[in-house]
Specification:
This protein has helices at about 10-20, 55-70, 95-105, 155-160, 170-175, 180-190, 205-210, 230-235, 265-275, 285-290, 295-305, 320-330, 330-350, 360-370, 410-420; strands spanning about 5, 25-30, 45-50, 80, 110-115, 120-125, 130, 135, 165-170, 195-200, 220, 255-260, 280, 310-315, 355-360, 375-385, 385-390, 400-405. The protein is an alpha/beta fold and about 425 residues long. It has two domains: about 5-235, Rossmann fold, CATH 3.40.50; about 255-420, Four-carbon acid sugar kinase, nucleotide binding domain (Molybdenum Cofactor Biosythetic Enzyme, Chain A).
Length: about 425
């Protein structure tokens, strides 16, 4: 194993696995930390998908260290800690504590922080994270129901979560090339700096940074930080140059869309899908809590929709989400939706549904767990960061498109199905 990755949620893991696969690495994505003796086959890169993004820091650290221990049994050469390109966290969040713990376990002198994903509009300049043309704190992420982002400065965000010194390598250095970046690394180590935020505003920046990271044992960031890493292994003569295979055969069966994300992008995709005449079933958490809405209601409705691919969603505007959270509590409201959609997915699978488009990281985690999926093969890309995947190691394979809430164009849902047809 050349690269081993620890991702803090399922859709982020899929995003990273797609990047590595597209860059020519044989990549396997595993859900959770596999049991001892799990066969990774001939994988050159393995991505372990945790569900740790919104856990208390000590639990996230424990899960991440268990994932690291698993990867090290395969003598992994480089480790990536993957989090969202919008740095979904809070001052009490766990990106900093997990980074600290991984640095200590690996005995590495420093690491980088770079969530940039320019293809999806996430860039880092002067240490500030932008979403499109606005600062992170001015984007729709400020209203995220679980990890509202009210600061855009990654140095401040990291320093609030770690006891280790944090500094910035700005784009002036990045533009001078990988040698200049390595020199900045060396100066930081001498100065005692352990965590370095690195600017990146385009894919060329990420490839330059990747080249500079060839001998760095721990890398942290979004999926974009992995763009330049495979080429380092080719230069070292341990990774072959190969064409990515495009074959993908979805299992026969019915199809359904499940959306739990309340991000602006997903809400707009749902609106476009409704406008196209797609039959929809909206889930209201307060109705679940009162017992007036049960999974059987949604299941029976979906089974009855023979003429089209149905959409079942709980996505709502920020004001509605805040009202619901005030009534039920933030954690309970989220758990109700996750359990509901997981139960729906499991029942639909038993009734002949084998193709699922799922929107939202937490929702995707719940659905994959309910379906008993343990590992995924990466298929064709629908939109940047979102491929079709095929489960394996299960008696009944399913095709899954697991979409981060913020990802995808407005016509994502129809585009996904057109790719299978």
């Amino acid at each position: 194993m050349l690269l081993g990755a620890i991702a803090d949620d399922l859709t982020g893991a899929t995003d990273l696995a797609l990047t590595l696969s597209r860059e020519g690495m044989r990549t396997v994505q595993v859900v959770g930390v596999p049991q001892e003796g799990f066969d990774f086959g001939d994988a050159e890169a393995v991505v372990l998908a945790l569900k740790s993004r919104t856990l208390p820091a000590d639990e996230a650290v424990s899960q991440s260290l268990a994932a690291l221990a698993c990867l090290r049994t395969s003598n992994v050469r480089q480790v990536i800690f993957k989090y969202c390109s919008t740095f979904d966290s809070t001052p009490e969040g766990n990106i900093g504590p997990v980074t600290d713990a991984l640095l200590a376990a690996l005995g590495e002198p420093f690491t980088v922080v770079c969530p940039a994903f320019p293809t999806n509009g996430r860039t880092v300049y002067r240490g500030n994270l932008f979403v499109g043309n606005v600062l992170l704190s001015e984007s729709s992420m400020k209203d995220h129901p679980l990890t509202p982002m009210t600061d855009s400065n990654l140095v401040r965000l990291m320093q609030a979560q770690t006891h280790l010194p944090v500094d910035l390598i700005n784009r002036d250095v990045v533009m001078r090339g990988s040698a200049a970046i390595r020199e900045a690394f060396a100066r930081a180590v001498v100065a005692g700096t352990r965590i370095l935020v690195v600017d990146a505003i385009c894919d060329d920046d990420l490839r330059t940074i990747g080249e500079a990271l060839a001998d760095v044992g721990l890398v942290t960031g979004g999926s974009g930080i992995a763009l330049g890493l495979p080429e380092n292994f080719r230069r070292a003569g341990v990774l072959a140059t190969r064409k990515k295979t495009a074959s993908f055969a979805a299992p026969a069966g019915r199809a359904v869309m499940l959306a739990g994300s309340c991000s602006q992008a997903t809400r707009e995709q749902i609106e476009a899908t409704i406008a196209n005449g797609t039959p929809t079933f909206q889930i209201v958490p307060l109705d679940i809590a009162s017992g007036t809405l049960t999974p059987e209601n949604a299941i029976n409705w979906a089974v009855a929709q023979h003429a089209a691919i149905p959409l079942i969603y709980s996505s709502a505007d920020p004001d509605v989400v805040r009202f619901t959270q005030n009534r039920l509590g933030r954690e309970k409201a989220g758990a109700l939706i996750e359990r509901f959609l997981g139960d729906v997915a499991m029942a639909l699978r038993s009734r002949g549904f084998s193709q699922f488009v799922v929107a939202g990281g937490e929702t995707s985690g719940a659905v994959v767990k309910a379906l008993g999926v343990s590992a995924l093969l990466i298929g064709p890309e629908i939109d940047p960061g979102v491929p079709w995947t095929l489960s394996f190691g299960n008696a009944k394979p399913v095709a899954l498109a697991l979409k981060s809430g913020n990802f995808g164009t407005i016509d994502f849902f129809s585009k996904a199905w057109n790719l299978l047809s």
